[in-house]
Amino acid sequence: MSIRRTGHRYRDLATGKTLDVWFPRDPAHARRGCLAEKLGLIAGDVVEVQIDSLEAAPASTEDVWLRLHLLSERAIKPNELNLEGLFALLNNVAWTSAGPVLPVHVEALRALAAAEFHHLAVPCVDKFPRMTDYVVPEGVRVADADRVRLGAHLASGTTVMHEGFVNFNAGTLGESMVEGRVTPGVVVGRNSDVGAGASIMGTLSGGGKTKNSIGERSLLGANAGIGISLGDECIVEAGLYVTAGTKVKLPDGRVVAARTLSGRPGLLFRRNSQSGAVEVLETDAQRWGGLNTALHSND
Q1: Rg (CA), the chain
Q2: Residue 83 contacts residue 93 (beta carbons within 8 Å)
Q3: Cα(283)–Cα(279) distance, integer angstroms
Q4: Residues 164/158, Cβ–Cβ less than 8 Å
């Protein structure tokens, strides 16, 4: 699939390095302005970016920025495009209230901005900006925009609470509650809940090439975690981390590694409060009641 888009690019004036590229829905609006540009630290221009194949690795910094936009615009789902080598193509940027600059230029920008009666704020220094500064998908709630990176895929009906975090090439496929960490390569199915402080092992956080996921109508309890996939209508009790090698006792008494249960539906993982052994029982989403309908009204 070939994709061609018009974007507005900011480059560092001294080095020519690309800082960011914004791809508006309407190419007629592909123009921005910021104080860092006015003060002569960065330059903006309109660029045409074409991706001939999403299966091929990104060919340029501009290519990476378009792929991140496509994910956050929900044009492409996580794991449906090649992002190999993206870190080497992205520059570390200081994302400031006066516009993006290389970190080495922050103090110069602060001094120049003071003459414009602008008090400079630097929310973060990173290769990725906040998603909401570039793409605001319809039908979602994001309580703390600093915790959702550009390249996150948030389906309509998703709520990301203050402690929730969604990285690039990760996200939700339907109405969901995210109060924990959704890391690269991870997708969360419709009507599922990632509890407060919970974590899902992604491809950049120890999972390697394994792409873990949560199915539909499932609950990952508060402060719990998984290094396997959960199927539909699964529950992991609060505080329990189930890695691929965790020994799990089945209802018939057999003990198996949790990886053998990865992706299977209708399972409740819990720790026996007397023996400490991790057990699995058959269950269904009715055990936890599902998402709160009123809470998930994102109109």
Answers
A1: 22
A2: no
A3: 12
A4: no
* 55 assigned to active site: no
Q: Is the CB of residue 45 less than 8 Å from the CB of residue 9?
A: yes
- For the chain, give me the number of helices (H) and strands (E)? 4, 25
Please answer whether residues 176 and 298 qualify as being in contact, where contact means their C-beta atoms are separated by less than 8 angstroms.
Answer: no
- Exactly one of 179, 216, 233, 237 is catalytic; name it: 179
- Residue 201 CA to residue 166 CA, distance in Å, equals 12
H helices of the chain, in order, are: 35-38, 61-72, 86-89, 106-114
Q: Write down the pTM of the prediction.
A: 0.93
pLDDT tens digits, 90-144: 999 999 999 999 999 999 999 999 999 999 999 999 999 999 999 999 999 999 9
Strands (E), 38-190: 42-51, 93-96, 99-101, 124-126, 141-142, 152-153, 158-160, 165-166, 170-172, 176-178, 181-182, 187-188
